[in-house]
Design a protein that fits this description.
single chain, 357 residues, five-stranded antiparallel sheet, 12 helices, 15 strands, globular, binds adenosine-5'-diphosphate
Amino acid sequence: MIQISHLSKTFTNPDGTVISPLKDVNCTIEKGEVISIIGPSGTGKSTLLRAINMLEPPTSGQIIVDGKDVTAGAYPLDKLRMKMGMVFQSFNLFEHKTVLENIIYAPMKLLKRSREEAVEEAMELLKKVGMAQKADVYPSSLSGGQKQRVAIARSLAMHPEVILFDEPTSALDPTMVGEVLSVIRQLAKEGMTMLIVTHEMRFARDVSTRIFFMNEGVIYEDGTPEQIFSHPVRSATKAFVNRIQKLVYEIDSNAFDFLQIRTGINRFCIKYNLAEKADVAYEIVKEMLFGLLPDLRPLTLRLTHAELSGETALDFMAEGIKESPLPDGNALASIRAKAKGIVEEPTVRGFRIKVLL
Ligand code: ADP
């Protein structure tokens, strides 16, 4: 359906510096494929999506869609964009139109649908994304997750052959990520061809038929989710998919800034969609630092999150001791009740208590 060969894109900044987010991209995308594009920031993922529908015309290379070269000047861009829906991070709804008007606008104007037909179909689509009850409101009264579901319905109303999603959940409050991902999951089940730039690793692994790992302007490794996430071949892919996010505090004395730790835990949990774990993490840190281990200083406190496995843990580590510093008895009971598990183990330089959240 889409064949991309030797695609490159170069931007020249006003100060004359040149950047090339796409260096040499080659791939073939078949009908019905769900491809997640993952990789570090700034490696050209968004630029690739925008090049595919010619929002960002490539500097060189070819994009063949349904047998026609869309990079050759003569290809009508309006036709291309009807084939390819795009859903943006920032929704891009018309704020002065109601939800329903947002959806019927393009089908009436570009597909020449009657208002009645367009409204009927729009209501079906709104039902599909769980937004039928909001048909007559303006986007400003919707949450981010609701806006994004409307944006997906708007894209579907044009009967695209493929939908390009550019980080569809990055601008959302963590509590709303799930509702948008479940709509995309549903489309995948129905066989919609989709390219999705995402940082949601577990979603990418679950929903995709294929993964493109982009690095430094090329598709550095591609394969099934199983290949890329469980058996990556190249070292940069391995490092990326297995990365663990960390937040570390060295607590040297009792004159530490507990508020700063609390704020840090909150920010970390929001950033990695763990908002529901923030309070528990904070409570456990408080009980450990003040209740169970008031004298164990220096102490290293670490909050870790492995994105792919979803494992989140609090580590309390001290050097130079071989035995668990925890008091005997049931002092740990209240932490046990909050945690998924506790592991007490010696390390090379001391001892670690790992509390799984
Ligand atoms: P990713 O989606 O992988 O994070 P992008 O494709 O957004 O990466 O960007 C890749 C690089 O290209 C970045 O350094 C970005 O600043 C640059 N870039 C993207 N769009 C433009 C533009 N319109 N003008 C100049 N530089 C751009």
